[in-house]
From TrEMBL:
Residues 7-126 form the Response regulatory domain. One of its GO terms (molecular function) is ATP binding. Transmembrane segments: none annotated. This is Sigma-54-dependent Fis family transcriptional regulator. The modification 4-aspartylphosphate is found at D56. One of its GO terms (biological process) is regulation of DNA-templated transcription. Gene3D superfamilies: 1.10.8.60, 3.40.50.2300, Homeodomain-like, P-loop containing nucleotide triphosphate hydrolases. It comes from Adhaeribacter swui.
C-alpha cells in the first residue's frame, strides 16, 4: 500500500512510545520524526513543516497536571495558527484532553493506543492539515491578486476642484458602512470610486465583489446574486453561492443598477431590507453582511418620477451620493491622466523614451472626450502601439469631431418657456440627473422641478 505523503512529528518523553510510534507510522507515512525533548519544538517548527504534531501532555517525572502540555500547545499554535496537533494522553486524562480541544488541539489518542485507531486519526488529521494549507495558499493568492487589482485601480487621479470634492466625500463616507450611489457618465471612473470607498472602509481586507447588472439577464438574476441549490434549474449541476454570499463581510458593488427592471428591483430591495437571501431552489434564509455601493449613468431621480425606478429602492441605496464629473468638465486633469497612462504603456510596450509634445497635450486638453477617462486611456494605448517616433504627435490620435448639441441658441429670440427648458436641461446634465442638486442650483423645490420636467417632456 502506498504511503501517505505527510510529515509527522511525535513529541513524548517515553522512549517506548516514540519507538512504537516510529515503527508503526513509518509504514504508512513518508516522514516520521520523534523527539523526547519538548524544548526543541520551536527549533523543529522553525526548520521544518509538519503536517501533524503528536504531543504528550506531561514531561516532568511524576507530573500529571498536563500544564506542560497546555503550555506547549499554546506555543505551537502561536507559531502556526494552522498547526494540526494530536494530543497523546492516558485514560484518566480524557477531561483534560477535551479541554485542550477547546483551546485549539485537533484530536487526541489514548495510550496505549490501538494501531488502527491511531492510523485513522492521523489520516483524518493529515487531510485537515492539507486542507488548511490549501486554504492558506488560496488566501495568500487571493490577497496577491487583490493587491494587484487595487494597485491597478488605485490611480484615482485628479487635481481639479470637482475631483477634490469627490475625494473629500470618499474620505468622509469611506470609513462608514453607509450605502453609496455613484452617478456619472460611462468612463468617468465609477468603479475606481467604489474601490476607493472599499479601501477606506473597515472591510478593506475582505472581498470587493463587482456585479455588472447590465450583463445579468433577468432569468439568471436570482442565481447570480442569491445563488442556487443543485437541481434548482436544468443547468444547476451543483450548489453555488451567489454574489451576496461571496461579498458577505466585504463590499458589494452593483454597477449599472439603473438597468434593472421593476420586478428585479423588488427582489433586490427585499434582500437589502431583510439583510438575508434565499438560494434559488431552497427555503433557507442566509444572513448577509455587506457594504453596498451602486453606480449608474442613468438619471435615477428622473426615472423615479416616471415610474421606472422604485423610490424605496433609491432611498435604500443612496444614503450618500457621489457625482463623478465628465472629463470635459475637469480639463485640469487631462494632462495628469495622459502622462499617467503614457507611463503605464511605455513600460508595457517597452518604449521607455516615448514622450508627449506640448502641441499634442494642448490638443488632448481641448478635445471633448465623449468616452471620458476610458476613451483617453484607450487613445494613449493605441498611440503608443502605433507610434514609430520618440514623440507622440497629434496625427497618432484619431480625434472625433465635437458633438453637435441640441440646445437652443442663446443669441436668438427665445420665449420664457424655451429658456426655462434650456436651464432645466443644463442643470440635469450637469448633475447627471440628480433632482436634488439640480433643483437646489435652479433655486426651486424638487416638486417644482419634477413639474417642469413633465411640462417640457424631458
Amino acid at each position: 500500500m502506498a504511503k501517505t505523503d505527510a510529515k509527522i512529528l511525535i513529541v513524548d518523553d517515553q522512549e517506548d512510545i516514540l519507538t512504537a510510534g516510529r515503527i508503526f507510522l513509518k509504514q504508512h507515512f513518508t516522514y516520521v520524526r520523534t523527539e523526547p525533548n519538548p524544548n526543541r519544538i520551536p527549533y523543529l517548527m522553525q526548520n521544518e513543516h509538519f503536517d501533524v504534531i503528536m504531543l504528550d501532555m506531561n514531561y516532568s517525572v511524576g507530573a500529571t497536571s498536563s500544564k506542560e502540555g497546555f503550555d506547549w500547545l499554546k506555543e505551537i499554535l502561536e507559531r502556526d495558527a494552522n498547526a494540526v496537533v494530536i494530543l497523546i494522553t492516558a485514560y484518566g486524562d480524557v477531561e483534560i484532553a477535551v479541554k485542550a480541544l477547546k483551546e485549539g488541539a485537533t484530536d487526541f489518542v489514548l495510550k496505549p493506543w490501538q494501531n488502527e485507531k491511531l492510523l485513522a486519526t492521523l489520516l483524518s488529521a493529515t487531510q485537515l492539515s492539507k486542507s488548511k494549507s490549501q486554504v492558506k495558499h488560496l488566501m495568500a493568492r487571493q490577497q496577491h491578486i487583490t493587491q494587484t487589482i487595487e494597485k491597478n485601480y488605485g490611480e484615482f487621479i485628479g487635481v481639479s476642484p470637482t475631483m477634490q470634492r469627490v475625494y473629500q466625500t470618499i474620505e468622509k463616507v469611506g470609513p462608514t458602512d453607509a450605502n453609496v450611489l455613484i452617478l456619472g457618465e460611462n468612463g468617468t471612473g465609477k468603479e475606481l470610486a467604489a474601490r476607493a470607498l472599499h479601501r477606506q472602509s473597515a472591510r478593506s481586507n475582505e472581498a470587493f465583489i463587482n456585479v455588472d447588472l447590465g450583463a445579468v439577464s433577468e432569468t439568471l438574476f436570482e442565481s447570480e446574486l442569491f445563488g442556487h441549490a443543485k437541481g434548482a434549474y436544468t443547468d444547476a449541476k451543483e450548489d453555488r453561492a451567489g454574489r451576496f454570499e461571496t461579498a458577505s463581510g466585504g463590499t458589494l458593488f452593483l454597477d449599472e443598477i439603473g438597468n434593472l427592471t421593476l420586478p428585479l428591483q423588488a427582489k433586490l430591495l427585499t434582500a437589502l431590507q431583510s439583510r438575508q437571501i434565499i438560494r434559488l431552489g431552497t427555503n433557507k434564509p442566509i444572513p448577509i453582511n455587506i457594504r453596498l455601493v451602486s453606480a449608474t449613468n442613468m438619471p435615477l431621480h428622473e426615472m423615479v418620477g416616471h415610474g421606472r425606478f422604485r423610490q424605496d429602492l433609491l432611498y435604500r441605496i443612496n444614503t450618500v451620493e457621489i457625482h463623478l464629473p465628465p472629463l470635459r468638465e475637469r480639463k485640469e486633469d487631462i494632462k495628469l491622466l495622459a502622462e499617467h497612462f503614457l507611463s503605464n504603456y511605455r513600460r508595457k510596450y517597452q518604449k521607455p523614451n516615448l514622450e508627449l509634445d506640448n502641441e499634442t497635450l494642448k490638443k488632448l486638453t481641448q478635445y471633448h472626450w465623449p468616452g471620458n477617462i476610458r476613451e483617453l486611456d484607450h487613445a494613449i494605448e493605441r498611440a503608443v502601439i502605433m507610434s514609430d517616433d520618440k514623440v507622440l504627435q497629434i496625427s497618432d490620435f484619431g480625434f472625433a469631431p465635437a458633438p453637435v448639441r441640441n440646445e437652443a441658441n442663446l443669441d436668438g429670440d427665445l420665449t420664457l418657456d424655451a429658456l426655462e427648458k434650456l436651464m432645466v436641461q443644463k442643470m440635469l446634465a450637469k448633475y447627471a440627473g440628480n433632482i436634488t442638486h439640480a433643483a437646489r442650483e435652479l433655486g426651486i423645490t424638487r416638486t417644482a422641478l419634477y413639474r417642469r420636467i413633465e411640462k417640457h417632456g424631458l
